[in-house]
C-alpha cells in the first residue's frame, strides 16, 4: 500500500501523537497526585472510617495502569519504528514504497500494537463506568437511570474486544481491519458519556431549584452545570467525536486524537474528583455532588434530600428554622 493513500504521513502522525500523549501524561500524573491528596484531606476532615474513598481510588489506580501502559507501548513502538539496527541493508517486511517506520506502524498484529489497543479500550470503559457511577450517586442511587449506560458499557466492552481480536488477525490497514467495530466503539462511548452527563446536569438543575424554593441561598446555578459539561461532555466527547470523524474519513490524524483522548480521560476524572471533594471552609456556596460511597446519615435537623452539600452547617440550620412548622415560639 502506498504511503500517500492516507494523509498526513503515518510515521509523522504517530510521532506527533507520541509527543502530545507524553505531555498530557505528565499533566495527568500531576493531577492524580493532587486528586489523591484532596481525597486524603477530605477523609480527615469528615472523619471517615476509611482513609480513602475506595471506589474512586480504585478507579484512579486502574486509569493510572491503563493510561501509563498505553504510553509505554507507544514509546516501545516508536523505538522499534525509528531506531533501526545498524546496517544499511536492514528493512522490515512490507511494500517497497513504505518507510521502515510506516511498515512497523502498519503491522497491527504486532503484540505492542494489540496491547496498546487493549489499553485504549480499557481506559474508555473505565471512563464510561465512572460516568455511570457518578450518575448513579447524583440520582440518589436510582438504578433505573443507569440501566442504559450499563448496557452501553457492556456493548462497548464487546465491540472493544472484537476490535482487539481483529487486530491480532490483521494483515491490512486499520481502516479495513477494524471495520465497523471501531466506529461502533467510538459511538458507544460517545453516547454513554453524553447521556450520563446530561442526566447529571438535569439533576443538579432540579436540585438547585429545590434549594432556592426552600430559601437556601445557592450560587451554583447554571455556572456549575456549564462547568460539568465542560469537564466531561464538551471535552471528552469532543475528542471522541474527532477521533471517530477522522477514522471514518480515513485520515491518519485519527492516531493523534486517539493518543490524546487516553490521558484526557484521566485528566477529566482527576479534575472532577478534585473539584467535588475539595475542602474549603471559607466557601459558602454549594459544592458539586459528592461521590462518597457511604450510607446516608440521619440528622435531627436536615433539609429534604438533595445532591448538594452546604459547607456551613450553621447556614443550613438557620434556613431549616424558617421552614413551616419549625419556627420558634
Structural summary, described in words:
By secondary structure, the protein is mainly α. The protein is built from 11 helices and no strands. It has helices at 10-46, 54-82, 100-106, 111-138, 147-168, 174-177, 180-213, 221-231, 233-248, 253-277, 313-320. Helix 2 packs antiparallel against helix 10 and helix 4 packs parallel to helix 7.
Indicate the topology.
Blueprint: H1 10-46, H2 54-82, H3 100-106, H4 111-138, H5 147-168, H6 174-177, H7 180-213, H8 221-231, H9 233-248, H10 253-277, H11 313-320
Helix pairs in contact: 1-2, 1-10, 2-3, 2-4, 2-10, 4-5, 4-7, 4-10, 5-7, 7-8, 7-9, 8-9, 9-10
| Average pLDDT reading | 76
The quaternary structure here is single chain
Tally of DSSP helical segments: 11
Record field, number of beta strands? 0
Structural class: mainly alpha
- Which sheet architecture does the biggest sheet show? none
Amino-to-carboxy terminus distance: 87 Å
If you compute it from the alpha carbons, what radius of gyration comes out, rounded to the nearest whole angstrom? 24 Å
Helical percentage: 55-70%
**Binned strand content:** under 5%
Uncertain parts? 279-329
SSE order, as H and E? HHHHHHHHHHH
Large-scale geometry: globular
Amino acid at each position: 500500500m502506498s504511503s500517500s493513500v492516507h494523509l498526513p504521513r503515518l510515521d509523522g502522525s504517530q510521532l506527533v501523537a507520541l509527543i502530545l500523549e507524553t505531555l498530557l501524561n505528565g499533566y495527568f500524573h500531576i493531577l492524580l497526585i493532587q486528586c489523591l491528596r484532596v481525597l486524603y484531606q477530605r477523609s480527615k476532615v469528615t472523619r471517615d472510617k476509611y482513609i480513602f474513598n475506595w471506589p474512586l481510588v480504585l478507579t484512579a489506580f486502574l486509569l493510572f495502569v491503563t493510561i501509563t501502559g498505553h504510553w509505554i507501548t507507544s514509546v516501545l513502538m516508536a523505538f522499534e519504528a525509528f531506531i533501526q539496527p545498524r546496517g544499511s541493508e536492514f528493512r522490515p517486511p512490507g511494500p517497497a514504497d513504505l518507510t521502515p517506520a510506516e511498515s512497523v506502524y502498519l503491522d497491527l498484529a504486532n503484540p505492542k500494537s494489540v496491547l496498546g489497543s487493549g489499553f485504549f479500550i480499557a481506559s474508555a470503559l473505565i471512563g464510561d463506568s465512572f460516568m455511570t457511577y457518578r450518575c448513579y450517586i447524583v440520582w440518589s442511587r436510582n438504578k433505573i437511570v443507569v440501566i442504559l449506560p450499563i448496557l452501553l458499557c457492556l456493548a462497548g466492552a464487546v465491540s472493544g474486544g472484537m476490535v482487539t481480536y481483529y487486530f491480532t488477525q490483521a494483515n491490512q490497514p486499520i481502516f479495513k481491519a477494524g471495520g465497523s467495530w471501531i466506529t461502533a466503539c467510538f459511538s458507544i462511548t460517545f453516547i454513554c458519556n453524553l447521556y450520563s452527563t446530561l442526566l447529571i446536569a438535569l439533576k443538579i438543575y432540579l436540585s438547585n431549584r429545590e434549594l432556592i424554593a426552600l430559601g437556601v441561598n445557592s450560587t451554583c446555578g447554571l455556572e456549575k452545570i456549564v462547568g460539568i459539561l465542560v469537564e466531561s461532555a464538551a471535552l471528552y466527547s469532543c475528542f471522541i467525536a474527532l477521533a471517530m470523524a477522522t477514522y471514518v474519513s480515513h485520515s491518519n490524524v485519527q492516531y493523534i486524537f486517539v493518543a490524546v483522548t487516553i490521558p484526557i480521560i484521566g485528566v477529566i476524572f482527576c479534575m472532577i474528583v478534585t473539584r467535588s471533594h475539595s475542602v474549603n471552609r471559607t466557601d459558602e456556596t454549594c459544592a458539586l455532588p459528592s461521590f462518597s460511597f457511604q450510607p446516608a446519615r440521619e440528622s435531627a435537623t436536615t433539609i429534604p434530600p438533595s445532591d448538594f452539600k452546604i459547607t456551613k452547617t450553621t447556614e443550613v440550620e438557620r434556613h431549616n428554622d424558617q421552614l413551616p412548622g419549625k419556627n420558634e415560639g
